[in-house]
Amino acid sequence: MAAALVLDRLFGEPRRRHPLVGFGKLAGRIEARFNRPGASRGVGLLAWLIAVLPLSLSFWLLARLPYLGWLIELLVLYLAIGLRSLCDHAQAVSHALDAGDLSVARERVGFMVSRQTDQLDETGVALATTESVLENGSDAVFAALFWFVLLGGFGAVLYRLANTLDAMWGYRNARFQRFGWAAARLDDLLNYIPARLVALTYVLCGNLHNGLRCWRGQAAAWDSPNAGPVMAAGAGALGVTLGGRAIYGGVMHERPLLGCGAMPTRFTIDAALQLVERGVLLWLAVGVILWGLSNA
């Protein structure tokens, strides 16, 4: 874990030929083959299994190789986590706001979120970025670490591929309503425990009282069973209010308010990044302690 986090800090994600880009192309071909009119949920599950299991099992076998297995697992975890990438994207928004360039800030936050960003004011940009940092910290960093600790490189690969398929197939629209059901539900299942550990992490690394109160009282109102605890606890830990109106696909959505306190500013973006980074250090410290106890 420590070595993979160091590699991520030094180099970030590969700028060319990232394995997940190749997997995305494979997933597109699988969807084109199986997602036909009238395709059932069972067909979507079969497509998910074809996309995820062979690659995950291949990395499990490679990790069993003598002398090289540890290196393969290290590289797998390095590729599975995206802390440096998350920081780079969020800081690009923060720097644009610092420079007073709202148009660039809107463009940069558009790389992080799926909502419409071209009409956001400074508060809206800061809010969207903060929400993305908290939620993607859970998905792109902590959950990958959790499954790596639990199942090694196999777990990290399985999770990242499942999470990618949810991002590609897990939409509630005419195209993916039935075909993408399995991808969305399996991602929810894989994130269930990590999301609650992340909520606890945010609470412990921020405002404990507000984080716990918002987590208990507000998480259930959010439409995602896993993003709700993460966002509510994170907002409370930061002492800001998240949620509210957002435009997705040209349609205005009224989202519940999460957290407590003022609306986010550009300074909240840095505070959210620091919360995630403190959480990663906490997880690493706990991992080292558990490793030491297991080898005592």
Order of helices and strands: HHHHHHHHHHEEH
Please tell me how large the radius of gyration is.
19 Å
- Number of helices, counting only DSSP H or I runs of 4 residues or more: 11
User: What level of helicity do the residues show?
Assistant: over 70%
Q: What percent strand?
A: 5-15%
Fold and architecture overview:
This protein has 296 residues and is mostly helical. It has eleven helices and two strands, in the order H-H-H-H-H-H-H-H-H-H-E-E-H. It has a two-stranded antiparallel ribbon. Strand 1 (241-248) and strand 2 form a beta hairpin.
Short description:
The protein is mainly alpha-helical and 296 residues long. 71% of the residues lie in helices and 6% in strands.
Tags for this model:
mainly alpha, 2 strands, 296 residues, 11 helices
SSE layout and pairings?
Blueprint (H helix, E strand, L loop, with lengths): L1 H10 L7 H16 L6 H22 L6 H12 L2 H16 L3 H9 L11 H48 L11 H25 L2 H11 L8 H12 L2 E8 L2 E9 L6 H29 L2
